[in-house]
Design a protein that fits this description.
The protein is built from three helices and six strands, in the order H-E-E-E-E-H-E-E-H. By secondary structure, the protein is of the alpha+beta class.
């Protein structure tokens, strides 16, 4: 397991939080964190896992709502600088961000990024659901 991923996993374990870990054939380590029926993937790569990309597939967007979701994504991206919102090729609303880590701060930084992500996702949930289901 890459060092930064290992440090993050140890921190999650100490905090008694649920997670799952997968080792990729390409040397990457994926830490999956479940929350509110969704999963956030932390994909650690590079030397000692110094790069991390975080993805949450938030919700499937119906074809009839794609234009409205693009407008919402643009609005959220302009307002919220921590995360990127986009619709992928499978019409999933995806929330993504990246960070560069050091071994000294990897666990703390990943956990802080997780907390910020979860708070933002809770804040925008109403807007997302209204856009998809109204």
């Amino acid at each position: 397991m890459l060092l930064s991923a290992e440090l993050f996993v140890e921190d999650l374990k100490k905090k008694g939080l649920a997670y799952d870990v997968h080792e990729g054939d390409d040397g990457d380590t994926v830490v999956i964190f479940p929350y509110n029926g969704k999963q956030t993937l932390f994909i650690f790569s590079g030397n000692e896992g110094k790069s991390v990309s975080m993805y949450t597939v938030y919700e499937k967007v119906p074809d009839s709502k794609l234009t409205d979701m693009y407008v919402l994504c643009n609005s959220l991206n302009a307002k919220l600088k921590w995360l990127k919102f986009f619709v992928d090729d499978s019409n999933n609303l995806v929330v993504q961000d990246d960070a560069i880590l050091t071994p000294e701060t990897a666990a703390e930084e990943c956990f802080e990024l997780l907390i910020v992500r979860l708070k933002i996702l809770d804040e925008v949930k109403g807007s997302i659901m209204r856009t998809i289901w109204s």
